[in-house]
Recover the amino acids of this structure.
């Protein structure tokens, strides 16, 4: 339906916008910035913080510009005396309820409330400090996320994220009036509820109420310990996000600078999770083909199809809670982080002649759920904790700043070897659809002996930010050993964001759809929009990161996982072949049924 | 009417065994537009307190193009000092149901919900029985309309119309952003006409007697009569149906105990009228509007305690979603306590009044917006009692 144009005036300046536009959006078009707190571009309108109030001529009350649609002839004032007084009052009220020990806050300097307080020169002494009477306790039971209610401003961004975007509902509003708070089920700690540790709430919290649990000091201690060898791995999406936290614009590829920075921080080996992403493709691709063979040739009805990817630990916890009957469908492959961890303390340590107990394995991830994953009891197949510490992209940026490194001026350096070489197929793991694309590049070639029939190997149908994507690849002229797949159509689906995952899983569980292979990423856009990536986040920023990921892929000399020479070497020297006994021991895992409550 | 005398009326509780049948049969023969015209003509305004013209509300809802529309009866009578709906629901529930059926017929709704406050659950069993009989009667008479009763869970905020919808929908009762208004997107996001219990009974009454008779009573801005819940320092506490338009002085003459120093008109969220203004204030939309609550205070009462009580109520009953209301209520409460204890200078009351003013214009819903009414009227008129 065609949209009408609406004429209005903001601060006496006429503007014409489409119907349905909010006053806030219209004001932005005229370059009038109206402060906001509860508003977030990824989330539905709340209209509850009220800092965005503006004056509408003829209205009895001020109106929340984020929630007010424009109307014909409307006259708005964004900076009248009435507005300024109300806005200042509202910020002061929030501060009276807020733990303002800013200097010791993890979000100091990056807090939206702090910036507003500064901008409006608030007088905190006007109102009585309420926060200290409320006896808040800090919930730091989760290995991923710390929840500090004394810093919460009840904007409900986290609640909307957790319910609408992620369909998890670990966080909800509880109680009313002065006792109102954001809480978990029966106020249980975050580690014993349905929280998937995805960290999307952390990405959207305007204050320090929800932050990642940081392990920066532990990592410094390890680096400073002359007795241990500190090995680090960097996930694909980190290299397209890190720059944002170090003064660069979104979409900058900083792989070489990041490697240089890590070496300057003092890591003994700077290696790449992309290496084990390639390894994942070989293990997971083989697993898929084996499952298909067992199901189609051996008619084994116990084989669960569609097979689903297992790289995203937030997704894993989600399915364990919500669709535990589908756990057999999950690939048994560990995530690239955990494959790397298991190899770091076995294969890599042996190569280097290090004792495994003297290796500290650190991973740099765009993710908060990876912190949880590293702590899962299954993840000790090397005989030790496979990954000792997980740092988010943000934590790495903080370490780089602490070390006084002028990031932008760094030379570009290369990863150490072995376990530092990777393919373009590995780097696209960082974007939704990437694992699928990488898997198809390899599986198609294994089965047919030819490259996937897409220009430049770019499988465009699996790319982009549609919530659920589908594609079908026809397998023709197969190699003799894969003859049973001749003419078969490989049906694939991809979802990102857990609300989309939920939709897709419901369809799978109901039997209304049928696929062979499904890729799920817990976060919007995939890992590039992960809970550990730089703040702020919105679709435009995520799109820039995605473009950078695909650029990175296009520029790689090797584009297919099975052509990574270090992977071939690993199999030859250590693992044997994909899905071998040793590979199973180190690289595969199992899952746990969890209750909803 | 004469402003300085009260005039008792007997319409709401009038004993008329044939009323339901008469009205339903009459309405069935009428054109929905004519019903709405009659309602607009009567000048009836919502009796829950906000005073929106009922006929217009119906007109707007009817004008919406939607297969599903709803009539909701707001029986979440939570305003402190108001207890008239309880009496209506106990004594003449069929008149409320009839009003809902009339509204449903007029706006084109096939479903009505009554949202009953949790504290009135003792009425629930009886109401369900009566509503079942009524639904059957409607069916027999050829009305495509039936009524369901939903129970609240005890939150004051759920009397706010959009929070009430959320609650019926099974969600946490928090007010929505407006626009859209209920007539456009109300219950289940469908056009909804939400009316107070008493309003719906008056709709029934107007359908029986016609707009003319209703209009004869009251004043230009406040037509008709209204049921008052009278409490406090009065020898005659109870429910009274009175013609609108009397002064507070006339009201106090009738119901006061001879020592009335203030009347809180409209419950905790209403305005406190001090003795010196009794003669000037008309009870109605031209003066002090009320949803029915009239609390009288004599000279033995501390207005500080009265205000503190109200603020404790609001600090607890705010839904907590918007900043001005959630934190503002707490600040007003702690603020007057601090002034009383001498921890804050009396001039702090001016800061608090400005804050109350901000709440009035910036809170998301009527709850937070109306806290300024008792606060400013009590602080202005009884400043000494607050400080000393």
């Amino acid at each position: 339906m065609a949209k009408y144009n609406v004429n209005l005036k903001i601060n006496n300046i006429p503007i014409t916008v489409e119907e349905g536009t909010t006053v806030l959006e219209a004001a932005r078009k005229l370059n009038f910035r109206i402060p906001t707190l509860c508003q977030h571009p990824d989330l539905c309108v709340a209209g509850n913080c009220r800092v965005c109030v503006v004056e509408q001529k003829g209205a009895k009350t001020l109106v929340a510009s984020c929630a007010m649609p424009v109307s014909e002839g409307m006259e708005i004032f964004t900076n009248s005396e009435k507005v300024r007084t109300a806005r200042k009052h509202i910020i002061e009220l929030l501060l009276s309820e807020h733990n303002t020990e800013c200097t010791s806050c993890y979000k100091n300097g990056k807090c939206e409330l702090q910036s507003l307080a500064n901008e409006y020169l608030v007088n905190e002494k006007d109102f009585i400090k309420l926060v200290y009477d409320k006896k808040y306790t800090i919930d730091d039971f989760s290995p991923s996320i710390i929840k500090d209610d004394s810093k919460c401003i009840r904007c409900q961004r986290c609640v909307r994220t957790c319910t609408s975007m992620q369909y998890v509902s670990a966080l909800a509003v509880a109680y009313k009036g002065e006792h109102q708070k954001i809480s978990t089920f029966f106020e249980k700690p975050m580690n014993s509820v349905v929280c998937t540790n995805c960290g999307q709430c952390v990405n959207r919290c305007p204050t320090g109420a929800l932050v990642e649990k940081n392990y920066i000091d532990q990592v410094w201690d390890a680096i400073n310990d002359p007795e241990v060898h500190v090995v680090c791995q960097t996930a694909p999406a980190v290299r397209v996000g890190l720059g944002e936290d170090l003064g660069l614009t979104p979409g900058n590829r900083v792989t070489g600078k990041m490697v240089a920075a890590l070496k300057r921080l003092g890591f003994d080996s700077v290696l790449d999770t992309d290496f084990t992403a390639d390894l994942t493709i070989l293990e997971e691709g083989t697993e898929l083909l084996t499952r298909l063979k067992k199901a189609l040739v051996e008619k084994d009805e116990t084989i669960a199809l569609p097979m689903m990817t297992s790289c995203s630990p937030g997704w894993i916890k989600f399915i364990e809670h919500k669709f535990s009957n589908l756990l057999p469908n999950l690939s048994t492959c560990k995530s690239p982080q955990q494959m790397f961890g298991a190899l770091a303390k076995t294969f890599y340590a042996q190569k280097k002649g290090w004792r495994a107990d003297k290796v500290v394995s650190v991973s740099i991830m765009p993710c908060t759920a990876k912190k949880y994953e590293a702590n899962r009891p299954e993840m000790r197949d090397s005989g030790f904790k496979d990954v000792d510490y997980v740092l988010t992209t943000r934590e790495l940026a903080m370490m780089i700043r602490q070390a006084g490194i002028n990031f932008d001026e760094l030379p570009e350096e290369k990863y150490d070897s072995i376990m530092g070489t990777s393919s373009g197929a590995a780097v696209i793991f960082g974007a939704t659809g990437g694992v699928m694309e990488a898997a198809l590049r390899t599986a198609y070639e294994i089965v047919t002996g030819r490259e996937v029939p897409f220009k430049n190997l770019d499988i465009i149908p699996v790319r982009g930010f549609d919530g659920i994507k589908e594609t079908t690849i026809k397998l023709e002229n197969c190699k003799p050993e894969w003859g049973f797949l001749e003419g078969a159509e490989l049906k694939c689906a991809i979802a990102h964001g857990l609300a989309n995952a939920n939709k897709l899983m419901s369809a799978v569980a109901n039997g209304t759809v049928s696929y062979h292979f499904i890729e799920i990423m817990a976060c919007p856009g995939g890992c590039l929009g992960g809970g550990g990536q730089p703040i702020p986040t919105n679709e435009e920023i995520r799109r820039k990161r995605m473009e950078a990921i695909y650029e990175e892929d296009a520029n790689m000399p090797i584009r297919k996982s099975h052509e990574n020479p270090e992977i071939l070497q690993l199999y030859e020297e250590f693992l044997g072949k994909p899905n071998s006994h040793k590979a199973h021991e180190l690289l595969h895992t199992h899952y746990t049924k969890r209750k909803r409550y | 009417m004469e402003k300085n005398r009260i005039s008792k009326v007997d319409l709401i509780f009038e004993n008329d065994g044939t009323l339901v049948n008469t009205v339903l049969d009459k309405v069935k023969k009428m054109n929905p537009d004519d019903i709405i015209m009659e309602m607009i003509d009567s000048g009836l305004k919502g009796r829950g307190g906000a005073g929106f013209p009922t006929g217009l509300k119906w007109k707007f809802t009817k004008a919406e193009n939607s297969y599903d529309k709803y009539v909701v009866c707001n029986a979440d009578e939570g305003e402190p000092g108001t207890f008239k709906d309880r009496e209506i629901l106990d004594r003449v529930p069929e008149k409320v149901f009839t009003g809902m059926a009339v509204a449903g017929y007029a706006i084109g709704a096939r479903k009505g919900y009554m949202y009953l406050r949790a504290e009135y659950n003792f009425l629930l069993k009886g109401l369900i029985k009566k509503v079942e009989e009524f639904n059957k009667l409607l069916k027999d008479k050829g009305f495509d309309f039936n009524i369901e009763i939903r129970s609240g869970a005890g939150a004051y905020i759920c009397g706010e119309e959009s929070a009430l919808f959320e609650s019926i929908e099974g969600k946490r009762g928090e007010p929505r952003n407006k626009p859209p208004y209920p007539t456009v997107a109300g219950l289940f996001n469908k056009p909804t006409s939400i009316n107070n219990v008493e309003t719906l009974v008056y709709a029934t009454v107007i359908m029986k007697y016609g707009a003319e008779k209703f209009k004869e009573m009251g004043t230009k801005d406040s037509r008709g009569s209204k049921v008052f819940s009278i409490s406090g320092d009065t020898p005659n506490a109870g429910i009274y149906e009175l013609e609108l338009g009397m002064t507070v002085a006339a009201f106090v003459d009738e119901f006061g105990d001879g020592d009335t120093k203030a009347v809180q008109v409209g419950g905790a969220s209403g305005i406190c009228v001090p003795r010196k203004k009794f003669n000037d204030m008309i009870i109605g939309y031209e003066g002090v509007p009320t949803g029915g609550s009239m609390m009288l205070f004599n000279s033995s009462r501390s207005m500080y305690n009265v205000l503190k009580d109200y603020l404790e109520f609001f600090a607890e009953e705010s839904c907590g979603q918007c900043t001005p209301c959630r934190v503002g209520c707490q600040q007003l409460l702690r603020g007057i306590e601090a002034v009383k204890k001498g921890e804050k200078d009396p001039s702090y009351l001016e800061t608090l009044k400005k804050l109350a003013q901000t709440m009035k214009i910036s809170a998301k819903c009527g709850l937070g917006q109306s806290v300024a009414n008792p606060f400013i009227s009590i602080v202005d008129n009884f400043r000494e009692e607050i400080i000393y």
About this structure: Chain A touches chain B at residues 45-51, 53, 60-62, 64, 67-69, 82, 85-86, 89-90, 93-94, 96-97, 126-128, 130, 153-154, 156, 172-173, 175-180 (CB under 8 Å). Chain A is about 35% helix and 15% strand. The radius of gyration of chain A is 25 Å.
